Amino acid sequence: MTHSDLPLWPETRVEIREGAVLLRGFALSVADELLPGIREVASVAEFRNMVTPGGHVMSVAMTNCGRLGWVTDSKGYRYTTEDPSTGKRWPEIPEAFEKLAREAADAAGFSGFAPDACLINRYAVGARMTLHQDRNEQDFGQPIVSVSLGLPATFQFGEVENRRGAQNVAVRHGDVVVWGGTARLAYHGVLALKAGVHEATGEYRFNLTFRRAG
Ligand code: MD3
Ligand code: FE
Question: What cofactor(s) does the depicted protein rely on (predicted)?
Answer without folding.
Answer: Fe(2+)
